[in-house]
Design goal:
Layout: E1 2-6, H1 7-17, E2 22-25, H2 33-38, E3 45-48, H3 52-64, E4 69-74, H4 75-80, H5 82-91, E5 97-103, H6 117-123, E6 127-128, H7 133-150, E7 153-159, H8 160-164, E8 166-170, H9 188-191, H10 195-216, E9 223-225, E10 228-235, H11 237-246, E11 250-254, E12 257-259, H12 263-272, E13 275-279, H13 285-292, H14 311-320, H15 353-364, E14 379-383, H16 407-418, E15 423-429, H17 430-446, E16 452-457, H18 486-492, E17 497-502, H19 506-518, E18 523-528, E19 542-544, E20 563-566, E21 569-572, H20 584-588, E22 594-596
Parallel strand pairs: 2-3, 2-4, 4-5, 5-7, 6-7, 10-11, 10-13, 14-15, 15-16, 16-18, 17-18
Antiparallel strand pairs: 1-8, 6-12, 9-11, 19-22, 20-21
The structure holds thiamine diphosphate (TPP).
């Protein structure tokens, strides 16, 4: 049966057909749909885990229990899960364990760009990379088999284009009726990594890589395609598709097993062709591997090391390097993008984060858009990652930092302990708080950080598409789940000054924040209001009384997409406005010109 599937859909279906019994993930683009697709299936346990580290630990436990398990995450998620990733490489497993890392070249939706192929080599975990959805589907069965045969976790590395592009997949398998029975086999020398047990496991790991090196030599999805022998191109992943498109007649070596690479096959290919080049996205990972073999390959001298590749970029590089004869581009994108006006990302109409960020800007910044030394009386606002990070843009301009998930609280403590004379506020979302904010807050309690933490609780993981998390009471299957109450959790951690405010009540936010900034020791404000995309019925929309509006534009300072200008007066788009469910514009208007429609 043929189906049009994205890479993520294909991975999910492939894993399901391969008999995966436990699947875990923490959401993150471009990986999220893998678990979302698995959550639609029966006879499988799925969960949104608290974070990627927990996701991998749960999957690792399941694989210790003898069943097939999978943990999926975005590239930076594997940084969070690096500790168990290295640990499970040491212990091995019994059931198959597949880890999926979806990298994001070009940082379409990420705080950083990194090439996770290095992490496979670093952790000594075999890695395979599909070049389309068919391979993504087919590979899943192989990955579990490799994992079980070699007693190792296996990394499937995808990238945004592989994960999100749809190609035709011949769905050849079905889920087996007789899945492996869970059973834990006691083996302290394998699973209890005290130094005396861990040292012998190092030998096991090295032996395993030696065996894998010979296994990958005959792996059927690696492919040598001999065309014109003047140019031989080594490639993997989506870059392989671009290279095939641009170099019509060259010879190709497509590598699906990219750690370890099939050394013999690569050497044979290099002998078949006059010149070897490597076309790969991000780092010269394969190119350096070829150099180590003494093969004088080139690639990164004409293919960029930064950002996502496209067929055009590969073609331009090849022309520049004299590999393609014509200086005229031979490849043209089928669809050229229309020239649209630039638009900054912004928070939605009715977003509960707006009010808190507006108050923060008013209270904390004297001149929000001027970089430079911070003034006396201003407050440093460390931020985290979520929809609220968009508050860095004007008109809100309310944030000073954003590095990686959970960092806001630690950064705030660091700034304060370093002796920066200004007050420091840390801002993070509810999902981010549970993901990796809790330990930072424990640090603030333990070390008496004189900081205020604002948890923007919109009851969901909004930025990645509304997944549940432990604070929401919604499971990965969107059924009812247990709720971890954030205020109870925060109190339990030892914070004495805990405040819950209505995220749409500007006065309450302001007075609470002022109070917290004046008190010693850590304080927490939970600013609570639902994500507008979860609000079933919007309230009555608001309107502007044109006679009362003086055109002062104060309402534009909240950056609500429902408000615009007409004849120098504010107007509200009633179709976009969330109305009485929000009402922030009415609170900021100094002329009291904004009110509920019909009043
Ligand atoms: C390590 C890591 N994992 C996952 C992500 C993807 N991601 C970005 S923000 C975010 C959470 C957003 O939820 P929340 O903190 O509740 O804020 P909201 O978007 O709801 O405002 C996630 C999962 C990431 N950037 N880094």
């Amino acid at each position: 049966m043929k189906q049009l599937l994205s890479g993520n859909e294909a991975m999910a279906l492939g894993a399901y057909h391969a008999g995966v019994a436990v699947a875990t993930a923490y959401p993150g683009t471009p990986s999220t749909e893998i678990l979302e697709n698995l959550a639609r299936r029966d006879r499988i346990y799925v969960e949104w885990s608290t974070n990627e580290k927990v996701a991998l630990e749960v999957a690792m436990g399941a694989a210790y229990g003898g069943v097939r398990a999978l943990a999926s995450m975005k590239h930076v998620g594997l940084n969070v899960a690096a500790d168990p990733f290295f640990a499970v490489s040491t212990t091995g497993i019994i059931g198959g364990l597949v880890v999926i890392s979806c990298d994001d070249p070009g940082e379409h939706s990420s705080q950083g760009e990194q090439d996770n192929r290095h992490l496979a080599k670093f952790a000594k975990v075999p890695m395979l990379e599909p070049t389309d959805s068919q391979e993504a589907y087919d590979l899943m069965d192989w990955l579990f088999k490799i994992s079980e045969e070699f007693d190792t976790p296996v990394l499937l590395r995808s990238t945004t284009r592989i994960s999100h592009c749809k190609t035709v997949v011949d769905v050849s398998r079905e889920r087996k009726a007789d899945l492996k029975q869970p059973a834990f086999i006691r083996s302290p020398s394998k699973y209890v990594m005290v130094p005396s047990n861990a040292r012998p496991r190092r030998n096991v790991m090295e032996d395993r890589i030696i065996k894998l090196r010979s296994y990958v030599e005959s792996f059927p999805m690696n492919e040598m395609i001999l065309g014109d022998r003047k140019l031989g191109i080594v490639s993997s992943g989506v870059a392989y598709q671009y290279a095939r498109e641009v170099f019509k007649n060259a010879s190709f070596l497509k590598l699906v097993t990219t750690y370890p690479i099939p050394v013999g096959l690569v050497r044979r290919f290099a002998k078949e062709v006059e010149r070897v080049i490597v076309i790969e996205e991000l780092d010269p990972y394969l190119e350096e591997a070829l150099h180590q073999l003494g093969i004088p390959a080139t690639g990164k001298d004409f293919i960029p090391i930064i950002g996502e590749l496209t067929p055009e970029i590969v073609e331009q590089g090849a022309i520049k390097a004299g590999l393609l004869p014509s200086p005229k581009p031979v490849h043209k994108s089928a669809v050229s993008a229309p020239q649209l006006p630039a638009r900054r990302p912004q928070l939605c109409a009715g977003c509960p984060h707006v009010g808190t960020e507006y108050v923060l800007r008013q209270l904390c910044f004297q001149n929000p858009s001027s970089p430079g030394p911070i003034k006396k009386g201003e407050v440093v606002v460390t931020s985290d990652i979520g929809c609220y990070t968009l508050g860095v843009y004007p008109p809100l301009s309310a944030l000073d930092t954003c590095a990686c998930m959970g960092a806001s609280i630690g950064q705030a403590i660091g700034l304060q302990k370093a002796g920066v004379p200004n007050k420091v506020v840390a801002v993070l979302g509810d999902s981010t708080f549970v993901h990796s904010g809790i330990t930072g807050l424990v640090d603030a309690v333990y070390n008496q950080g004189n900081i205020t933490v604002i948890i923007l609780d919109n009851g969901t993981t909004a930025m990645t598409g509304h997944q549940g998390h432990p604070g929401t009471g919604i499971s990965a299957r969107r059924t009812k789940a247990a709720v971890v109450k954030l205020e109870k959790l925060v109190e339990g951690l030892g914070v004495k000054n805990v405040n819950v405010v209505n995220a749409f009540d500007l006065k309450a936010i302001e007075s609470t924040l002022k109070r917290c900034l004046e008190t010693e020791g850590p304080s927490v404000i939970i600013s609570r209001g639902p994500c507008p995309l979860n609000v079933k019925a919007a309230g009555k929309p608001f309107k502007v009384d044109a006679d009362q509006c003086t055109g002062c534009y104060t309402c534009l300072d909240i950056g609500c997409p429902a408000i615009s200008l007409s004849d120098e007066k504010a107007v509200i788009d009633a179709g976009v406005c969330l109305g009485t469910a929000c009402g922030i514009c009415a609170q900021v208007c100094p002329q009291e010109a904004i009110s509920e429609m019909g009043k």
